Amino acid sequence: MSNFDLLVIGAGPGGYVAALRGAQLGLNVACVEKESALGGTCLRVGCIPSKALLESSELYEVAREEFAAHGIDADGLSLDLEKMLSRKDRVVTTLTRGIAGLFKKNKITHFQGQARFSGPGKVVVASADGEQTVEAKHIIIATGSKVAKLPGVEPDGQRIGTSTEALNYDKVPEHLVVIGGGVIGLELGSVWRRLGARVTVLEYLDRILPGIDAEVADAAFKVFKKQGLEFKLGCRVTGAQSKKKHARVEIDGQDPIECSQVLLCTGRVPMTDGLGLDTIGIAVDKRGRIPVTAGFQTAAEGVYAIGDVIEGPMLAHKAEEEGVACVERIATGYGHVDYNAIPSVAYTHPEIASVGKTEEQLKDEGIEYKTGKFAFMANGRAKALNQTEGFAKVLADAKTDRILGVHIFGARAGDLIAEAAAAMTFHASSEDLARTCHAHPTLSEVLKEAAMAVTSGAIHS
Ligand SMILES: Cc1cc2nc3c(=O)[nH]c(=O)nc-3n(C[C@H](O)[C@H](O)[C@H](O)COP(=O)(O)OP(=O)(O)OC[C@H]3O[C@@H](n4cnc5c(N)ncnc54)[C@H](O)[C@@H]3O)c2cc1C
Ligand SMILES: NC(=O)c1ccc[n+]([C@@H]2O[C@H](COP(=O)([O-])OP(=O)(O)OC[C@H]3O[C@@H](n4cnc5c(N)ncnc54)[C@H](O)[C@@H]3O)[C@@H](O)[C@H]2O)c1
């Protein structure tokens, strides 16, 4: 039986980062992961492979649609999907091996196998070689999430699949039906549309991207439609079946749709299957999440939980922040995550990025606010890039001018939002952002001018 200061269950962005921070802080750390590769959903079948394909498919589309405007002749352009997929696989392998290297360097003991609690402070690791019990003073559950089921839709891995299959189609689907107009649907729907598929997104709500500022989601919807994504809003999918030569998707009160491929992406749910939580007195809430205190402590003493398996946005960087804060609290007594300043990004083209409150949230909460907006169209760098769609919007408290939310739809929004997150972390006002000198010509000037528009007025509008 092995004994550790800290045992982490799950090696996703929450778990592997917690393990590394623990080792850096001098703890004797072990991490158990059931998959052969480290890195979790994010590195193996999530953030990283999807972004690799988004980049490749974007280059293909730009070469096809935009090179001519730059005076570049791209005649004879063709797609080698096999090569594109193997590049994506190489990116993943390099990164997952990188985590294994970091584990080694930091002397973290890595158990490969399925973990389950067998009692307080005790975890059984089951692998092909048998079972062993690992004991630890502190145990962090970082088991992540899995695809949410939709009644009547049974993924078969062939015609009906999840994001994992959609990262690996061996040919471009003729007609891909995406169930769910959330982040996965728009990112992976964009990939396959750019590569030549007809893509229809079926969304239950009357808008896409629930949770994103409505004005931004509406602007994005119009641009994505222009790009060729087809949408059916207000449309509840009730079933999907695989037939010999096609798949059939059933919609409440509407005609069914026949297509070549179905991508189910109607959300994810926490992953606690077979963990033996009952043996240590942990009960999940009605959404399957493990309840924790502000210090990530579960109902069982010495057992903590972080990442997708607890409340909050299911995002890799949120899991990482929690991993660091949880371990720092264990080792030093201090550790904190600023949940008001967690950015989120949809890697569509253009990107959609936000941090803080949406206008709808501010209205619901009765908070008075001022708005500043600036269009990419009026930015010199955006013009040079030929990427002039979208705008940035800064929301600031009407009385104190403190920034309450920033929403950007436009080129490189995912990178631009970092400045807004930093500003919000330091409780900056819109004037602080407006008076910060930004290099010219850069896209970051869009954010500066949006901040100026809150009070003194933007220069270039
Ligand atoms: C297609 C897709 C794209 C995404 N893109 C982004 C993005 O661009 N940006 C972003 O921020 N987020 C993205 N996400 C979400 C992101 O992947 C998750 O929020 C993140 O991975 C959560 O980290 P985690 O450590 O909590 O869990 P996970 O990454 O899910 O890791 C949990 C790990 O625990 C292991 N495990 C589970 N149970 C056991 C057990 N009993 N024993 C041993 N091991 C176990 C699992 O095998 C897994 O490796 C994406 C998700 C998907 C599906
Ligand atoms: N770039 C990123 O940060 C990124 C990328 C991918 C995934 N993720 C994370 O992964 C998680 C899962 O993503 P997702 O896109 O699966 O979920 P999501 O929650 O973002 O979107 C699911 C969508 O499906 C719709 N829906 C639900 N039931 C339906 C039905 N019966 N018929 C039609 N539509 C229906 C919902 O209204 C919603 O719009 C998200 O929480 C997200 O945070 C993040």
TrEMBL record:
FAD binds at residues 51, 143-145, 308, 314-317. Gene3D superfamilies: 3.30.390.30, FAD/NAD(P)-binding domain (3.50.50.60). Its EC number is 1.8.1.4. GO terms for molecular function: dihydrolipoyl dehydrogenase (NADH) activity; flavin adenine dinucleotide binding. Pfam families: Pyr_redox_2, Pyr_redox_dim. The keyword Metal-binding does not apply. Keywords: Disulfide bond, FAD, Flavoprotein, NAD, Nucleotide-binding, Oxidoreductase, Redox-active center. Disulfide bonds join 42-47. One of its GO terms (biological process) is 2-oxoglutarate metabolic process. Residues 4-323 form the FAD/NAD(P)-binding domain. SUPFAM superfamilies: FAD/NAD(P)-binding domain (SSF51905), FAD/NAD-linked reductases, dimerisation (C-terminal) domain (SSF55424). NAD(+) binds at residues 180-187, 203, 267. Its cofactor is FAD. Binds 1 FAD per subunit. It catalyses: N(6)-[(R)-dihydrolipoyl]-L-lysyl-[protein] + NAD(+) = N(6)-[(R)-lipoyl]-L-lysyl-[protein] + NADH + H(+). The active site is at 440 (proton acceptor). Residues 342-451 form the Pyridine nucleotide-disulphide oxidoreductase dimerisation domain. The active site is a redox-active disulfide bond. Belongs to the class-I pyridine nucleotide-disulfide oxidoreductase family. This is Dihydrolipoyl dehydrogenase. It comes from Aeoliella mucimassa. The lineage of its organism: Bacteria, Pseudomonadati, Planctomycetota, Planctomycetia, Pirellulales.
